[in-house]
Amino acid sequence: MFKRLSTDTLNWILIVGVILFILEITFFQGGMIIPALFFALLIYIGRQNFEKLWGKLFFWSGIIGIIFSILNMLAIRFFVVAAIAIFLINYSKSKKVAKWVEPHLNSHPKQEVKENLIHKHPFFDHRFFDDQRTDDTAYQWRDVNIHGAFGDRVIDLSNTVLPNDTAVISIRHLVGNIEIYVPYDVEVSIHHSSVIGRALIFGNYHERIMNQALLYQTKDYDTSFPRVKIITSIISGDIEVKRT
């Protein structure tokens, strides 16, 4: 069912669920969180004393209680309704349209000598809610090391001159898509991990990634320069790496 759903739609469902969870904690005195924690404690105590009758009662009472507590959370209700709606929509579409798959310490420390350093501004700042991309004009290369929460990240290496060494792109992200464009004469190593999403890496298409890690590198990466090492980690989103 979820294979037909775009990653952007899944991202929106996840975002709304997180917002509902935060609202329940903030405005409803914890909502069903506190009862769920109480029943979890009952499960723990009952599991530690499961050989006794009262331990069994604690354990199974906690199991039943925590199930009802979780099902009564606003976020869980929303996910259930969303799953039913997605199922009905996909079922309706499957009756009309055929399925298509397309890739898209010292007490007397020594006095430190102050060195002359050059302060450079990185390509990207750490932003939790925003889309980011490299400049469309020529720019001087600097390694990328960023993290974020929501939004897309686009890095185009065709407008820069990479050093005759290993350039590094490291992105840690929660929800959003990542696009990286690499020139044809650059060797590449890609290590991507994702909980939910899709991947299109130099024509190699992964329709659905579920808590997986992907590792690719071009044939001459170990011996040729320039080269770029790409390390990405994302909770929910797509990644696309292609030549330009």
From TrEMBL:
Transmembrane spans: 12-45, 57-89
Protein name as catalogued: Cell wall-active antibiotics response LiaF-like C-terminal domain-containing protein
Keyword annotations of the record: Membrane, Transmembrane, Transmembrane helix
InterPro entries assigned to the protein according to its UniProt record, in alphabetical order: Cell_wall_LiaF (IPR016975), LiaF-like_C (IPR024425), LiaF_C (IPR047793)
Top-level taxon of origin: Bacteria
Annotated Gene Ontology cellular component terms: membrane
NCBIfam families: LiaF_C_term (NF040535)
Keyword Hydrolase: no
Keyword Membrane attributed: yes
Pfam families, alphabetized: LiaF-like_C
Cell wall-active antibiotics response LiaF-like C-terminal domain boundaries: 128-241
